[in-house]
Design brief:
Helix 2 (about 15-25) crosses helix 4 and helix 3 packs across helix 4. Helices cover about 55% and strands about 10% of the residues. It is mainly α. The chain is built from seven helices and three strands, in the order ααβααββααα. It has a domain at about 10-75: Arc Repressor Mutant, subunit A (Orthogonal Bundle), CATH 1.10.10. The chain has a three-stranded antiparallel β-sheet with strand order 1-3-2.
């Protein structure tokens, strides 16, 4: 269901997961090799996904200051906005699911859902309560 929301915004599921991993890494970004490891894919495949997301202006590629040979990716403002849009759409579904769980089950569900929905959607549902607002989805062209 979350991947369907991402597809509506012009992202394939693996590119969406890549964006979520970078989104969750904060301002410091993520090495392409670490992204490959997190997604359990070959580094060359991760590099191709990154190239596509850089072309779409969703990621910015730079060098790691501690090792200039390593590439680090960070979200652009457009990439961050897209992640927030997907989060907003996911939040409604996550809230509905978590509200049905017992407190101990919520903790387990939260850790599992964090990977799939990104940190933003899950943080707001720790106690089974959503943030109470939803940002409008921005439609992206599929090209």
């Amino acid at each position: 269901m979350i991947d369907d929301d991402a597809k509506k915004l012009g992202l394939d599921p693996l590119a969406h997961q890549a964006l979520l991993q970078v989104y969750g890494s904060g301002k410091r970004g993520l090495r392409v090799s670490a992204l490959a490891e997190r997604l359990d894919i070959a580094p060359s495949f991760a590099s191709n996904i990154v190239k596509h997301l850089v072309t779409e202006k969703l990621l910015r590629r730079g060098s790691d200051v501690s090792d200039m040979r390593a590439a680090v990716v960070t979200l652009t403002s457009e990439g961050r906005e897209l992640c927030r849009d997907v989060d907003a759409q996911a939040r409604v579904r996550v809230d509905a699911l978590i509200s049905r769980l017992e407190p101990e089950e919520r903790k387990v569900a939260r850790s599992i859902l964090m990977f799939y929905t990104g940190p933003g959607a899950v943080r707001r549902t720790v106690n089974g309560k959503g943030a109470g607002r939803s940002a409008p989805a921005r439609q992206r062209s599929a090209g």
